[in-house]
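Bench notes, afternoon.
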Amino acid sequence: MMKEYFRRYHRRCCHGCCDWHRHRESESGTAPVVASYLRVVAAKFVLEVMGAAGAVWGSSDALSLREAPRAEEAARLAAMLTGGIFFVRYWWRAKHRWQHQRDYSPTKTNHRRTRRLAFFQIHASKLVLEVLGGMGAIWGCSEALMLRHSNNEIQWRMAATAVGSMFLVRWTFQMAAYCLYLEAFWSDPSSIHMAILRCYEVLIVKLILEVAGAVGAVWGCSEILTLRNSETNKIWRPIAVVVGAIFLVRWSHQLMNFVGSERKIASRQLLQVDEARSDEVEDLSIADLHLKETTDTLLDENTSM
């Protein structure tokens, strides 16, 4: 029986882990595909592998969970284990992107409430990368930029906890949306609250998770692997700042794309309003014509009588 379980596990989880055969070929050539692929996987390695380890490490420090020596070693072990798990996840997603030129497709709408394993994997990842990651991003980035020191540590601890709480509320709403609850709230992308939500995601969420998170990921991982200490801080601080500057440029490019997409949504909405008005005018004209014809008929009948 154990042999059968192992065979099933290997077939589902390990079979084909080193198969990088391309299933789709790009029409634009190999070089642009490779360059785009490397940009994506490099960013995901920093944000999802190093970020996962740094999230556990930084959030444990922000919550004062690793003040004792034994607690610090336990937090280091937990951070390294989390980074290893997310590296396996990153490997499979990177392989799938190379083979199919896209990420994994989202779960089908009518299967969302029945696939419990997919639900756990998606939202456990979001809990680590976004909730703990938001807290760790503020905590690590503030130290890397020399904004946090012993005199204002309490204030930065409160700020990191507040950001983590904000992302925890966001995480619960994401689970509700995934399970198709409050569907009417998310169904109209042209509504005001959805526009505000999109602005919040780009201007605040991405800035914290992807810019400050990149700085905190490099800063935290270097300490987890015992590469950074009081003597090597001067080496790792510029590295973390440079990585943050690269991700800041990336975020600026995403922001420009977001502004362009919002303009398209606004113009499409105006076009729909104009079409609706033209349809209303046409309906009124038809109604007026029908009323005029009815009136003329009645007048003719009265005249004949």
